[in-house]
Backbone:
C-alpha cells in the first residue's frame, strides 16, 4: 500500500520527511494511518495507449 507521510517517520533506518510517499505492507500501513502519521495514496493508473490508426 502506498502512503503519504503526514509527519516525519523512520522506517528500516531511513528517516522520511512529511510529504514523502512510501510503500509498506497493508498491516503496517494501516497502523500508520490509524496513528495519524500517514494517509493512503491512490496509485496513479498507467495510461492506456490509444491506437492512433483507425480501422475501416
Residues:
Amino acid at each position: 500500500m502506498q502512503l503519504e507521510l503526514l509527519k516525519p517517520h523512520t522506517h528500516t533506518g531511513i528517516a522520511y520527511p512529511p510529504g514523502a510517499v512510501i510503500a509498506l505492507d497493508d498491516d503496517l500501513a494501516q497502523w500508520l494511518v490509524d496513528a495519524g502519521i500517514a494517509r493512503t495514496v491512490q496509485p496513479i493508473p498507467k495510461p492506456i495507449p490509444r491506437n492512433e490508426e483507425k480501422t475501416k
